[in-house]
Design goal:
By secondary structure, this protein is mostly helical. The protein has helices at about 10-35, 60-80, 80-85, 95-110, 115-135, 140-195, 205-210, 230-245, 255-265, 280-310, 325-335, 350-365; strands spanning about 40-45, 45-50, 55, 375, 380-385. A 3-stranded antiparallel sheet has the order 1-2-3. The two termini are about 25 Å apart.
């Protein structure tokens, strides 16, 4: 909401992005190493490395791993921008770190099988490509606009189709690799066990007392729940019943679980995983009603309008700066919010990162406000910035 005039936000953003790259890369290597050597265990609600047949790495949930992987790729992207690198007075991140971070993050994103995170990264790429197609300063003729729209549809279709196909191939291929690796480890373990057979053995009762349950079957890195919505449609139907209770002012976020048990079908239960509707927009609508949703929508629309103005109506291009990357990430996050706990109320890394990037975007907007100009459409002045 407020920063001092001399606040160097680019320096701070660079520090944050660099820290994300270092920490995520190390975490990814640890998770992949443990996966390859079948190091996994369960402790209360923590399921290390594998959670419901999906890769989690060192995180507690595969969806969180997927989101962090997307954030790491986004940070690598902005760290490669030359204009952004030239304005900071810090030690540059090595290209080796950036390449390692991108590769391990993509690998983790594919194996965690998080559909919402896949939507996030695909939407990020598509929005950024839209900017590259339509941010030309020389004006666009109707023929160029039509051609670029067709090209954009083809590129988007190719990205979505190839990404889903590549994820399927990667999951099946690595499932075979892990199966072979685990069988080799089992053979080595059995050989070591046979070498110790001459030692005195404990009786069966003692073995039963000390034996720990093992759940190390074959891994396919796919959802155990065959439903593509993972039960979200059931939550959405429940949200409609909750919305009818108080459509104008809402029932407040703190009452969602209680009202679900008292006045609806009881789909939501008081657990860490089910205290949200897994849709950021529905959660705001049910919690604050139409009134709060409209107020939040007005705030979001005005911010989006100013952000788009600075992206397309500036006197110079930001193609080599971090601003288009942040705009693309915030736009992609809106699609991500349709399937995950996002936007408000859930105090987590996913929500706080969204508002942090929005804050840095606001700093760009405040700094470059005098640079706005009239946008030329079809080689004529057709749209003034105040009418956007």
């Amino acid at each position: 909401m407020h920063t001092e005039p001399d606040f160097d936000f680019k320096n701070e953003l660079y520090t944050v992005a660099r820290g994300i790259v270092y920490i995520t890369t190390i975490a990814n290597f640890i998770g992949i190493f443990c996966l390859m050597f079948n190091i996994r265990f369960e402790w209360y609600w923590i399921k290390f490395t594998i959670y419901e047949n999906r890769f989690t790495g060192i995180y507690i949930n595969p969806n969180l791993l997927g989101f962090v992987s997307c954030v790491a790729i986004f940070c690598c992207h902005i760290l490669c921008k030359p204009d952004f690198q030239n304005v900071v007075n810090q030690r540059k991140v090595s290209k080796i770190w950036i390449v390692a971070c991108v590769c391990t993050s993509l690998f983790s994103l594919l194996l965690c099988d998080s559909n919402a995170s896949m939507v996030l990264i695909l939407a990020y790429m598509i929005v950024y490509i839209v900017y590259q197609f339509f941010a030309a300063k020389d004006g666009l003729s109707p023929a160029k606009v039509t051609m670029r729209i067709v090209a954009l549809v083809l590129v988007g279709t190719f990205l979505v189709g190839s990404s889903l196909m590549f994820r399927e191939i990667c999951q099946q291929g690595f499932a075979v690799v892990t199966a072979k690796t685990y069988s080799l480890l089992d053979e080595i373990t059995e050989k070591e066990q046979s070498d110790t057979d001459e030692q005195p053995k404990q009786n069966d009762s003692d073995n039963n007392k000390t034996a720990a349950p093992s759940d190390k079957g074959p891994i396919t890195f796919e959802h155990e729940n065959s439903n593509i919505d993972s039960g979200r449609f059931k939550l959405y139907r429940e949200s409609l019943d909750l919305f009818k209770i108080s459509p104008v002012f809402g029932i407040s976020n703190g009452n969602i679980v209680f009202y679900s048990q008292e006045y609806a079908n009881g789909t939501l239960k008081y657990t860490y995983h089910n205290n949200d509707l897994h849709n950021g927009f529905l959660t705001i609508l049910v919690s604050t009603g139409v009134l709060g949703f409209v107020i939040f929508g007005i705030f979001g629309f005005r911010f989006a309008k100013h952000a788009a103005q600075h992206l397309f109506l500036q006197k110079k291009t930001f193609k080599n700066d971090a601003y288009p990357c942040m705009f693309a990430f915030l736009s992609a996050y809106l699609f991500y919010a349709l399937f995950e706990k996002a936007l408000l109320y859930d105090i987590s890394f996913m929500v706080m990162w969204f508002w942090l990037i929005m804050g840095y975007t606001s700093c760009y907007i405040a700094k470059f406000e005098p640079m706005l100009e009239t946008r030329y459409l079809f080689h004529q002045k057709r749209l003034h910035r105040s009418l956007l």
